[in-house]
Design brief:
elongated, 3 helices, about 25% helix, 11 strands, nine-stranded antiparallel sheet, alpha+beta, disordered N terminus
């Protein structure tokens, strides 16, 4: 009968107590784990470390983003952040809209209406944070100056010389004030000073170009 295993055949797998040569295995001595298992464990550890690093970077970016949002929100609620020097400059009358209807609505005397028509008023603004000095120079040398602080009541004077008290506000980059008989706003748009006055639905708009 032919042998079950030829000389070239490998020996059968050993039992738990016998090694591959048919000799008893010393007590407590087991076969070492396959290299493939060790490699898989190392790969798993590397993947875990990589995921941990990515999560750490994501958390750091998220924290930085939240800090930036918080800083922007704080600045948004500070009135002076509309621009410390946004209005500063000297502006000369360039054109207006709806002049006659407006001045009649607010009751300006006839002689004042003619004086103000196409009047080359030069408006000079000095801004330091929330503090403003607003001067209007009229032909002939007459000037009107209003000094005020955003959010605080101040003594004011109209172009016609009428004195009153008002609290000037800053809303969306616009200076806003309620005059005795009209609502007035001023803003810088395209480098020009744009002033809008509204009285009983009649809107007057005056545009002045920057000259200094």
């Amino acid at each position: 009968m032919a042998a079950i295993f030829s000389a070239a055949s490998p020996p059968p797998p050993s039992s738990s107590g016998i090694d591959n040569h048919g000799l008893p295995r010393p007590p407590g001595r087991e076969s070492p784990p396959p290299r493939r298992a060790a490699g898989s464990l190392l790969l798993c550890l590397q993947l875990c470390q990589s995921v941990s690093q990515r999560n750490s970077r994501w958390i750091q970016r998220t924290i930085c983003g939240l800090k930036e949002i918080r800083s922007a929100a704080i600045l948004l609620h500070q009135p002076h952040h509309q621009g410390n020097m946004a209005f500063t400059g000297k502006y000369e009358f360039e054109g207006d809209e709806n002049y006659d209807d407006f001045v009649k609505k607010i009751g300006l005397p006839g002689d004042k209406i003619e004086m103000g028509r196409n009047c080359k008023i030069v408006t000079e603004v000095v801004q330091n944070g929330n503090d403003f000095t607003w001067t209007q120079h009229f032909p002939g040398g007459r000037t009107t100056t209003n000094t005020f602080t955003i959010g605080k009541e101040a003594d004011m004077e109209t172009m016609g010389g009428k004195k009153f008290k008002a609290t000037v506000k800053m809303e969306d980059g616009k200076i806003v004030a309620d005059f005795p008989n009209y609502h007035h706003t001023a803003e810088i748009c395209g480098g020009k000073l744009v002033e809008t006055s509204t009285a009983s639905g009649v809107v007057y708009k005056r545009t002045s170009k920057r000259i200094a």
